[in-house]
Write a sequence for this structure.
């Protein structure tokens, strides 16, 4: 039987999509079935979803239904403070700091205050249950990745039995550690938007920043079959014609571009790398190739992505954001179509998140045959590599 891993990349408010896919997967399992993944690995908002699943590993369906309820009833003020006074104070603080060079105002640690998210997670996630799930065999390991600012490396904190060894590679390490609320807050601390979090003697930020190999942690821990739930459709905008008048990117456009790059681009590089290794093993008719650090072995991946452009869904719900936040975002150009990428990561409002849960569920049901094959160790062609990656390799 294969060792399965669930990979949940960074997503912001798009994390609701992951819940919809998991709901479709839960319907493939018997009622009250335990968590089907030996390893659950998450980054940023994906780390929060991962921790909830790990803490409720004895009943996968119940865990997913609880996540669906939370995501479908979200409001921005459960994630970060968005009242008029807080927005005004934050804007004036940044303005005063920039104008005076820090003389009349201290340097702000972030644009937004995400203390409400800390309080919500403290209430909803029972961290001692993660240890209990591992002891009872419902889970092998939970991995939460964050980026260390001083040592400039990606740190994958993993909670697992003592026989799971840490690892060290260039600019990335795996460290055995009990997962706490601070690890989740650090992993989700998007630079500039949310404050960094201190763990031990170092400050950490969003795990996507240096996570150039987001699948590697699960592979280091022994996984050979990966389910990856992405949060970006792979139908990019067409390249503009030369005669079109180019529009300079707004601050919101650049910020959304940055988040999109952080959350998803490393994932595709890793998927392409795995597909190449699988191809080499297939050509050489070998199951694994020894090397100085471990072995190269075949790893199957199933990738599920949104079938719709999430920016368009965000555009339908942007007016649900609090007025003060809309005004702040408008000043950055976020209300234009080019800024919807940024809005889609910040739109923690129930209309938007409910639609994403529904989209994820539809996409999961559309891939039900593949999900069942993944769960029950049956062969399935799409586990070799996603079609758009195979096309690139064969070009």
């Amino acid at each position: 039987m294969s060792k399965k891993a669930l990979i949940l990349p960074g997503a912001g408010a798009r994390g609701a999509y992951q819940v919809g896919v998991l709901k479709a997967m839960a319907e493939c399992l018997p009622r009250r079935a335990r968590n089907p993944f030996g390893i659950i690995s998450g980054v940023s908002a994906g780390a929060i979803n991962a921790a909830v699943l790990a803490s409720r590993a004895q009943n996968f369906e119940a865990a997913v239904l609880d996540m669906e309820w939370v995501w479908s009833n979200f409001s921005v003020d459960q994630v970060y403070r968005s009242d008029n006074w807080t927005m005004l104070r934050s804007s004036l603080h940044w303005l005063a700091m920039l104008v005076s060079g820090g003389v009349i105002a201290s340097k702000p640690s972030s644009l937004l205050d995400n203390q409400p998210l800390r309080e919500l997670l403290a209430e909803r996630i029972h961290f001692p249950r993660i240890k209990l799930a591992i002891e009872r065999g419902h889970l092998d390991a939970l991995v939460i990745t964050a980026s260390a600012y001083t040592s400039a490396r990606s740190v994958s904190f993993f909670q697992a039995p003592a026989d799971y060894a840490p690892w060290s590679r260039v600019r990335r390490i795996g460290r055995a550690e009990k997962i706490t609320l601070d690890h989740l807050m650090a992993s989700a601390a998007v630079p500039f938007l949310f404050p960094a979090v201190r763990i031990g003697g170092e400050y950490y930020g969003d795990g996507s920043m240096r996570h150039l190999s987001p699948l590697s942690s699960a592979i280091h821990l022994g996984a050979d079959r990966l389910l990856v739930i992405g949060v970006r459709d792979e139908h990019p905008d067409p390249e503009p014609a030369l005669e079109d008048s180019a529009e300079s990117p707004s601050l919101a456009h650049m910020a959304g571009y940055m988040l999109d790059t952080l959350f998803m681009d490393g994932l595709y590089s890793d998927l392409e790398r795995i597909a190449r290794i699988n191809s080499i093993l297939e050509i050489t008719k070998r199951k694994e190739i020894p090397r100085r650090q471990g072995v190269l072995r075949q790893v199957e991946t199933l990738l599920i992505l949104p079938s719709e452009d999430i920016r368009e869904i965000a555009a339908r719900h942007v007016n649900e954001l609090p007025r003060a936040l809309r005004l702040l975002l408008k000043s950055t150009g976020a209300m234009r179509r080019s800024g919807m990428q940024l809005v889609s990561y910040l739109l923690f409002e129930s209309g938007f998140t409910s639609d994403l849960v529904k989209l994820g569920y539809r996409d999961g049901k559309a891939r039900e045959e593949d999900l069942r094959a993944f769960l029950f160790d049956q062969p399935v062609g799409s586990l070799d590599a996603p079609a758009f990656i195979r096309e690139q390799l064969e070009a």
